[in-house]
Amino acid sequence: MKHCKGGDLYHYIQNKKKQNTPIKEKRILIWLTQILTALKFLHSNHILHRDMKSLNILIDSDKRVRLCDFGISKVLENTLDYANTLIGTPYYLSPELCKDKKYSWPSDVWAIGCLIYELATFRTPFHSTKGIQQLCYNIRYAPIPDLPNIYSKELNNIYKSMLIREPNYRVTVQQLLVSDIVQRQLKLLIEEKIREKQSMKKPLKEKQTIENDNLGANEQEVKTLLLDIVDV
């Protein structure tokens, strides 16, 4: 992993909070796309992160985010496997974890939803001053808060799709990656990476359009570009 001069996302958020400066939707979408790309890579290799939070996301000198701290990650044998250890940062716990149920890939998606809310409001969507039991109750039953009105309905909808309490109905990483709002950002990020490569005078195949649910007609080329966009 390259050195990340920008520190971690948690302290970036805290600085914005002190400055009372909202994080722009464009920046949130860029980071969301990079995080989803990294998470797709992990899940495709049967790795459940289990501790997705702002403190475990680093920012490099180009303001690209990098996932870190895989100390409690778990390798699942296949995509249908589940973990059953209660672990992770409490404010990002999914409802299934709060119910002490088996959990899998959807729990990482829930944590990303909590992160999007934190980027937009400088706080997590669920909290409690009365301990973990009350926090878990809020995670399971409290109303899902909307993002502030300065953010688009499209972003609010995709954020809420990550916080569907029933894991079987929660949006998947793949569904998020092929959504219109993320596809637009993926296209911009890939075009930016192509320009960077061209400016370095390295040969590059003609860019392919992202069209299908495998992220594009030339999937291997797109995967290579995406791995350049975000590191894990």
UniProtKB/TrEMBL annotation:
Gene Ontology molecular function: any one: ATP binding
Key word GTP-binding present: no
Keywords on record: ATP-binding, Kinase, Nucleotide-binding, Serine/threonine-protein kinase, Transferase
Keyword Kinase set for record: yes
Gene3D superfamilies to which the protein is assigned, alphabetical: Transferase(Phosphotransferase) domain 1
EC code(s) of this entry: 2.7.11.1
Domain Protein kinase: 1-182
PROSITE patterns referenced in this protein's UniProt entry, alphabetically: PROTEIN_KINASE_DOM (PS50011), PROTEIN_KINASE_ST (PS00108)
SMART domains, per the entry: S_TKc
Catalytic activity of the protein: L-seryl-[protein] + ATP = O-phospho-L-seryl-[protein] + ADP + H(+); L-threonyl-[protein] + ATP = O-phospho-L-threonyl-[protein] + ADP + H(+)
Record Pfam families: Pkinase
Recorded superkingdom: Eukaryota
Group of enzyme by EC: transferase
Stated name of the protein: non-specific serine/threonine protein kinase
Organism, scientific name: Plasmodium yoelii 17X
